[in-house]
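Reviewers of the previous submission asked for a worked example of the structure-prediction workflow described in the proposal, so we include one complete record here. The input consisted solely of the amino acid sequence. No template or homolog information was supplied to the procedure at any stage.
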Amino acid sequence: MPLIPFDDRDGFIWWEGKLIPWRDAKIHVLSHGLHYASAVFEGERAYAGNIFKLQAHTERLINSGKILGFDIPFTADEINKACYEVMAANNLTDAYIRPIAWRGTEQIAVSAQQTKIHLAIACWNWPNFLGADRLKGVTLQTAHWRRPHPQTAPTASKAAGLYMIGTLSKHTAEAAGFTDSLMLTWDGFLGESTGANMFMAIDGKLHTPVPDCFLDGITRRTVIALAKARGIEIIERHIPPEDLTLAQEVFLAGTAAEVTAVRQIDDHHFTPGQITETLLHDYEALVLMAPEEVAKRAA
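From that input alone, the workflow returned the following structure tokens.
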């Protein structure tokens, strides 16, 4: 099936306080965000009309902008309301929502103190790409590129520029027949996939890398809370790649990936088991709960 270009679709996009036709949501070619990656974004999912962990996503968006040195000119409440407005305008109750903030055209140089900060929010229908096959699992190839040292890049921000090495790595993995890449940290420990955090089940305990040079994902924190509620011990540590030989199960957790099993990393093979299946189903149940119930169940 041919892809539908994202610039030629029906619908509406929220653009700095108002809804505009999808095809009219354009920026100038000399926008600072395009040339210097001075942009931050979020990825959110709505289930049955409720955007899961919306407040946490909005707070991270605002904080990401601050890390990049700018303030988004809308409050968290205004951004939350806008996310629901654009979803309603597109007649969606199950959707992927993409807010993005970027520096504008007032300056086109490394210095950008005078640029205006823009905010837009789009949403579209984007189910999990594996659907019912999420328990069968994806395959990962260890990437050549590594997550940067936090003193070399704003790694605590969901900044657009940080995804360049993810794109390069994923393309290399796909060319080799894998689904995605496994990104190591700058110092050689296990990190994450190109867009989701990873977990390993070893002898009934759940091990996950310390997110000290990549995002501590909202879904990651949710899965940790769900595991603790099940009495599963969580071990956050710097995990050397050779420890993959100890794992019985591996899975990914992220807004786009949700909870997805991993069946292969390089020449290591895994069988999705009880821990992966339990947490996948617990997550599926949680996202369908009312927001106030979600707050009670998983911090």
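The mean pLDDT is 95. We consider this example representative of the routine output the project will generate in years two and three.
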